[in-house]
Amino acid sequence: MKWELRLGREAIAALYRIERGVARNVGAALDALAADPMLTNLQVDAEDPSLYWLAVEGDITVWVEIVDERHAIRIVKIG
After folding, report:
1. pTM for this model (two decimals)
2. Helix %, strand %, coil % for the chain, to 5?
3. Domains observed in the chain
């Protein structure tokens, strides 16, 4: 079962600001995350252990929050 992705306002705005080719890389990373977040290279954020980050090709980092009880992943920030 795929995970539901929920993009925050800041994440959506960031997608509009980044280069189109890099945005495709972010989209591919988000698709992989929705398929199975445990198979991606998520790292715990040192400052906030409730957040995880994922490096994406093109020098982009995606910060997410996993909401297990709702089987959802909230995309907090892309930068």
Report:
1. 0.89
2. 40, 35, 30
3. 4-78 (3.30.2310.20)
